[in-house]
What we know:
Helix content: 55-70%
Low-confidence stretches: none
Order of helices and strands: EHEHEHEHEHHHHHHH
Largest sheet: 5 strands, parallel
GO molecular function, one term: DNA binding
Strand order of the largest sheet: 2-1-3-4-5
CATH superfamily of the largest domain: Response regulator
CATH class of the largest domain: Alpha Beta
Protein name: DNA-binding response regulator
Domain Response regulatory: 3-119
CATH topology of the largest domain: Rossmann fold
Mean pLDDT: 85
Keywords: DNA-binding, Phosphoprotein, Transcription, Transcription regulation
Radius of gyration: 17 Å
Domain HTH luxR-type: 147-212
Number of strands: 5
Amino acid sequence: MIRVVVVDDEPMVCAHLRTILGSAADIEVVAQAQDGAEAVEAVVRHRPRVVLMDLRMPGVDGLTAIERIAKLPEPPAVVALTTFDADTYVIRALRAGAAGFLVKSTPPEDLIGLVRVAADGHTVLSPEAARRLVAMSADGRRRGDDARRKTEGLTERETDVLACLGEGLSNADIAARLHLAEATVKSYVSRMLVKLDCANRTQAGLLAHEAGLVKR
């Protein structure tokens, strides 16, 4: 069972998400919160696998909550919820440790599938959305230069794996594309996260976009 905490300052949004996710047999919404402080408390109390986190809330906002949750032992995957009119804020959330983001208008059937993807430890970030985020970043050019410098120390195979992360591919998909064993891909990803000083796959995937490694 995938345990989920829903965080939004609008009760109707929480109720809507709870209804959608509750229709899936393998997902249980164990708590909901209306600000970041409540979200952190809910995570500590209920130990969910996934948190859907609104970013702009009164009191403790979503970005601060993501930073606090990332410091907890064995933190859950936190997926930022956005209306896509706050792109720079979303980028900050991803760099703070969010596992990805979803637009609030995501169709119900897609939302359920993406929560499952997040629960499995994969990136919830489409290549198109990632490109838009990087392009709209105020310091995108500087970050691009920094990203290219970071990736210069990678081997050719590590660079290939990083580009696949930028496409949001799972380890199994990367293994199939590059003709590697899945365990080998896991080793590459683990080493790259350390080399690139990335907290998770999503940060590495965003770095791949900033470095211009994702062509799709």
